[in-house]
Amino acid sequence: MVHFLRAARLASAISRQPPMVWPQQQRKLHLAPPFLLDSYVPRYQKLGARDAALKRSKAYAHLRNCNLCPRLCGVNRYETTGMCLVGEKAKVNVIAPHFGEEPCIQGHNGSGAVFMSGCNLRCVFCQNHDISHQRNGMDLTPEELGEWYMKLQTVGNVHNINIVTPEHVAPQVALSILHARELGLNVPIVYNTSSFDSLASLELMDGLVDIYLADFKVWEPRTSRRLLKSDDYAATAKESVKAMHSQVGDLCFTGDGIAKQGLLIRHLVMPGREHEGVEIMKYLASEISKDCFVNIMEQYSPRAHVGKKRRGKDGGSKTRYDDINRPVNDSEVASVREAAEEAGLWRFNDAPKHDGFAI
């Protein structure tokens, strides 16, 4: 009887409240409509036989005349390698359940992470230098790769297959997903990319990828040339992110809080480069979507070439890239976050501020 009276009083109080409205500037719930899904079927499961065959054909064509990134090496990957140092087979460094920086992706069981070796960028601060800049790992055919997806799904019981640094092996990834589909794969595919992709490779992945987990690293061409060894990374990233969003839209979840489809942008705040992060946030809000889900990361920890001694006789005791050889500070991170909010972005990869609901 007591519980009934409490429920009656609560219902009466709710009935006296004005109708709830969700203006753009007041929405706070990531799991509010239209970002809440009743159920989800991976996009590759909906692909028809004809479209799947066309994707296989395009994948083989890309390998014969490589145009997978803006470097446009044009090499025959069956015979040699390009800038990425990877040929016909995918070189894989780690395959395991993984718990990373985005809880909405990893959930309680983790992602089935597949870390690819090789990379089409040469970031001087790369935190995965041993994987991305070197050819460590095992060579796998697309069929073998797809079979590993199945092991992660059946043995690891993971929420999704998270393919890390796939830009240079997009054809192999496409073929592996199609093969795994035939074997019974039924979890979403996460394409964890630097955004240094060609539009041709993203077109190949359309219909196969459910979540694009995309970096947006820097904004200025001079920073790109110096730190990424790319003439104009931002120009490519802008086109790539726009193409990704057009395919999968804003990040959507099922009721368990696990992301199933959409775009999630990551920006690693770098020391002395917070003004570039500000411009990136403005671009996302104005050109992609104010509902874009963003992870502003503060865990910059340089490796690769940063802090190493300069080469040559004149190097002496000086170290390389001294200006970025330090952690970011709170004010640098805060300035990027403030700019994001001022631009209208509101969906951030923040830790929950409560443990649940209480009445």
Automatic annotation (TrEMBL):
Q: Where is this region: Disordered?
A: 304-326
Q: Please report the name of this protein according to its UniProt entry.
A: Radical SAM core domain-containing protein
Q: Which residues form the Radical SAM core domain?
A: 115-246
| Matches recorded under InterPro entries | Aldolase_TIM, MJ0674-like, Pyrv-formate_lyase-activ_prd, rSAM, rSAM_sf
Which Pfam families does the annotation name?
A: Radical_SAM (PF04055)
Q: Which keywords does this Swiss-Prot/TrEMBL entry list?
A: Iron, Iron-sulfur, Metal-binding, S-adenosyl-L-methionine
Question: Which cofactor does this sequence's record say it needs?
Answer: [4Fe-4S] cluster
Organism lineage = Eukaryota, Fungi, Dikarya, Ascomycota, Pezizomycotina
Recorded GO molecular functions are:
catalytic activity; iron-sulfur cluster binding; metal ion binding
**What Gene3D superfamilies does its record include?**
Aldolase class I
Any binding details for the cofactor? Binds 1 [4Fe-4S] cluster. The cluster is coordinated with 3 cysteines and an exchangeable S-adenosyl-L-methionine.
Q: Which residues form a coiled coil?
A: none
Has keyword Repressor?
no
Q: Which residues bind [4Fe-4S] cluster?
A: C119, C123, C126
List compositional bias (Basic and acidic residues) regions by residue number: 313-325
